[in-house]
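User: Predict the structure for this protein chain, please.
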Amino acid sequence: MKGTLLIVEDDRDLSDLIAYNLRREGYQVLTASSGAQALKLLDSQRIDLILLDIMLPDYDGYRIAQYVRSRQDLRMIPILFITAKDREEDKLKGFSVGGDDYITKPFSIKELLARVRAVLMRSKGVPPGRVHNIGDITVDLDTKKVWKGGTLVSLTPSEFRILEALLENRGKPVSRERLVENYLDRDVFDRTVDVHIKNLREKLGKDVIKTVRGFGYKIE
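Assistant: Here is the predicted structure, written as structure tokens:
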């Protein structure tokens, strides 16, 4: 099991949809349709992440977040707000009361899964620089996994090594020669790198990897 997530959402259909998709990803999921139910579960269960609606029938999500942050035994649980409140002041208030991320309705399930994964990675202290986000793409260099919009992307070992090299030198161009010498089999041609880059662009998006003309490639 990847962890136990608590969904606090009074819209039953939305709660069920989120829970279904999170369980498919391997998470254990608990649900609450009110603040009171959520507080009971927080007192009785070990929770790794709270997905918290703001407009609930009893307490609002801001108050629940403040309560969680005030409790010594709960304050380290990350909170991801899921809400229809999309004004800037609402988002700022969400962060000010201790929210770790904020996603507004309607949202895609893929985006929600990507945000859940990113918040959990941060909360578990994944070393900086080993997890990279490029738009809707998340690359974990330790587990060698890549997600695009919440969907796992299949890369060949050579493709991943090139992606890793560019991310470890993020913002700086890496020459074809260096990619061959340090990251690929030395008996391949420089232009073989171009083929791998072409495949990476097809899988991740054409604008992720920039060409440095006459030299090599880079990721901003």
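Residues 4 and 47 are 5 Å apart (CA to CA).
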